[in-house]
Amino acid sequence: MLARSPDDSLVDGPEAAAMAARLAADGIEVAVVDDLTGEHDFAWRDGSQVARLVREALARLRDAPRRTTS
User: Fold this and answer.
1) Which of 2, 19, 50, 66 shows a CA-CA span of 20 to 30 A to 28?
2) DSSP state of 2
3) How far is it, in rounded angstroms, from Cα 64 to Cα 68?
């Protein structure tokens, strides 16, 4: 999961899109969340946004198809 805020002055939208494209090209399924608020590290200091991201990530894992190994 890649998450960013439109207010982020360190990682802009095109950079986040490039990160997501690179991960996808490497075969990694990635979710992009771009509705955080605040500057680059505000989500970590705030805590509630990180908690929401953790809930979303866990829900995605719960709902993902199960992979079997041979």
Assistant:
1) 50
2) E
3) 12
What is the model's pTM?
0.76
Which neighbouring-strand residues pair with 2? 32
DSSP E strand stretches across 1-70: 2-3, 32-33
Give the Cα separation of 26 and 2 in Å (integer): 15
C-alpha separations of 18 from 37, 38, 53, 66, 70 in Å: 21, 21, 21, 28, 33
> Would you write out the chain's pLDDT as a tens digit for each of its 70 residues?
999 999 999 999 999 999 999 999 999 999 999 999 999 999 889 899 999 999 999 999 999 888 776 6
Closest by CA to 39, choosing from 2, 1, 12, is 12
Residue with tokens 């207010």: 7
